[in-house]
Amino acid sequence: MITLTQQPIQNPDDDKNQPWQHALQNAIRDPQELMNTLDLPEDLISGLGQASRAFPLLVPRGYVSRMRRGDPDDPLLLQVLPLGIEERIIPGFIQDPVGDMNSLARPGLLHKYKGRALLITTGACAIHCRYCFRRHFPYTTSSFFRSQWSETITYLETHDEIDEIILSGGDPLVLDNKKLNELVCILESFNQLKRLRIHTRLPIVLPERIDKGLLAWVKRSRMQIVFVIHGNHANEFDNSVQVALQELRNVGVTLFNQSVLLRNINDNVKTLYDLSIKLFECAVIPYYLHLLDPVAGASHFEVSEPLAKNLMRQLRNQLPGYLVPRLVREEPGQPAKTDIPL
User: Fold this and answer.
1) Residue 261: CB partners within 8 Å, gap ≥ 6?
2) Residue 142 and residue 169: Cα distance in Å, rounded?
3) Can you give the pLDDT at residue 5?
4) pLDDT mean across residues, the chain
């Protein structure tokens, strides 16, 4: 029986007043401020208020700095800009499009696939992507909390076939290094766990988060560490992002990227080609290209399956195989992601 008192809690670097925390606190949350910062036309403000109240705007200023000023069609802007169209009720677009709620084995613990389980570590993110499949997830009642560790421990002890844990959210890197270190130390107590996978957007939207404290606990972990980052467009990868990703590679992290195919953002061959090339320059392997999860409020991002297949066929003709992501969708109740045959 593993108990919490047996966990070797180490002391990472002091988390107080870290640059990434200041950057997150200073993120833009007011749609009008975003309009002003980018010199966008005032007629764009129509409908922003209600959409932002339903799912608040949140975008770090460093990410905003990569957007084109005065361009309402900028592909980075479109990922975060609240629009009135989100309020439309579209058949088939629902609040739990991937069946998370039916997969909750314990509070905050999802067990969908053989050999791996996922922890909803927090409901917080550093950016609110408008197409987020968990934008309606009930984090207050269905997330993992420190007080629930005993339930999680019991579950892992009775499911020794689980050899990989995925940290997700929200975004697990919004947790500070002390909390992450404590969590990882407890997970390392389970000899069955071989791999720790972290699903995160922060190395892209808030590269300051890849700091010395984080790199320290990653480097000393006995588990193999995999970061699955989420980038949709080459313009997201400036020099600060490239440096952060290289620092992760330097401490032995394996890096993959998963994208979402989004209308008017990356639904053309050139954009997808440029993204794969940029990812590889940053030592990241293109992994998945997801068809949009049909979450309520995101129907305007949908790209049809026939168009997606055509794009992938063209992409395969232009890139080596290792730079072509797998076109997939997630279907509730299936034992793995569903590959889309071309």
Assistant:
1) 267, 289, 290, 291, 292, 303, 308, 311, 327
2) 11
3) 39
4) 92
Q: Helix/strand/coil (H, E, C) string of the chain?
A: CCCHHHCCCCCCCCCCCCHHHHHHHCCECCHHHHHHHCCCCHHHHCCHHHHHHHCCCCECHHHHCCCCCCCCCCCCHHHHCCCHHHHCCCCCCECCCCCCHHHEEECCEEEEECCEEEEECCCCCCCCCCCCCCCCCCHHHHCCCHHHHHHHHHHHHCCCCCCEEEEECCCHHHCCHHHHHHHHHHHHCCCCCCEEEEEECHHHHCHHHCCHHHHHHHHHCCCEEEEEECCCCHHHCCHHHHHHHHHHHHCCCEEEEEEECCCCCCCCHHHHHHHHHHHHHCCCEEEEEECCCCECCCHHHCCCHHHHHHHHHHHHHHCCHHHCCEEEECCCCCCCCEECCC
Structural domains present in the chain: 21-87 (no CATH), 95-339 (3.20.20.70)
Phi, psi dihedrals of residue 93, rounded to the nearest 5°:
-100, 110
Mean pLDDT within 118-126: 94
Burial of 328 (0-12, 13-18, 19+ CB in 10 A): middle
What are the distances in angstroms from CA 190 to CA 5, 118, 180, 184, 228? 14, 15, 16, 10, 22
Neighbour count for residue 262 (Cβ, 10 Å): 24
Q: pLDDT > 90: what percent of the chain? A: 82
Model confidence at 43: pLDDT above 60: yes
pLDDT given for residue 47 in this prediction: 67
Amino acid at 118: L
pLDDT at position 213 over 70: yes
